[in-house]
Structure prediction request, 391 residues.
Amino acid sequence: MSDQATGRVLAATEAAAGGPEHVEVPVDYDAILLASFGGPEGQDDVIPFLRNVTRGRGIPDERLEEVAHHYRAFGGVSPINDQNRELKAAIEAELERRGIDLPVLWGNRNWDPYLRDTLREAADAGHRKLLAIATSAYSSYSSCRQYREDIALALDETGLAGTLEVDKVRQFFDHPGFVEPFIEGVRDGIAQLEEALPGIDVATEAHVLFATHSIPTEDARRSGPTERGFGEGGAYAAQHLAVAEVVMAESGRGLPWDLVYQSRSGPPSQPWLEPDINDRIEELAEAGVRAVVIVPLGFVSDHMEVKWDLDTEALETAGEHGVLAVRVPTPGVHARYVSGLVDLVLERRDGVPAAERPALTALGPWYDVCRPGCCENVRLGFKPAISGLAP
Prediction:
């Protein structure tokens, strides 16, 4: 959120308040805020959780129950909260290993522990300058701006907007710590195909599918700074494509590949990014492809969209069409990923110049402070958001 008249980013540290693309002066942060989506932890939590996720959209419980069966198939428990507990512990261990005294506080957008409660916890502990890490690597409304809006809303709800300063690390889609686990995964995935199907010609009979969450095409077009001209898919699609190219250059052995989408929702009349992973698997089978490597490139951990939409639906689709499918891991608590998140914290703590920051694509390193108009939600318009210039 920012003051339209002064152009200053409100709720920001002084180093970020003026809205520089990259903050290149040191900031003495008090704590790290690990911000995530959240998920239900029992059958009774499922519908209240989905009400939180869809708040303001007027969706009746009957329609929410259509999505609820994904969670109910796993006992009403989303893996994401336990994954965040593991990630928090792993970050704390890495900080301790490096001798860095920064506590890690964890808050969710849609389920306990809620961001507002975590911010109260931070203030009660005497913390005043927080650096947020969102568990999402790419630019779009749902993967970046909505986190920034929800933190701003939590500051307002708690009355802490004048007490806490909250910055956010850059989107880390092309940071080596995020990308290298996928490079390793694709290399291992191809080896698994060759072991399972001796004699397969992977160059002609195998395919790599990079999967990410679909979003409305209009939201995609508005992702990232519009003046950069990313085209119809916006920064969201451009970032995924750029990272996939890096992964394939390092480990793909010349295999053909596609960026595909999953988990779309909303009315059929609303265009969303395509192709759907299940449709693409069917097409590949008809073209004679015998095996696919599925890479959950858009996800940091094996949460519900991975466990249901990939490990259940996509693998079933592959099986129905006689295609062997191997799904490679998400970064999770991979040592390189955890180390990379701490590196991102140190970038901001130490004010590392942009020219010295690692980025594996020509798109990065991404912005520390989001640009005006970045990642608009077409339906909702702009709301106050931390770590970005208005609107």
Remarks:
- Strands lie at 31-36, 104-108, 129-134, 165-168, 206-213, 257-262, 291-295, 324-327.
- The two ends are 8 Å apart (CA to CA).
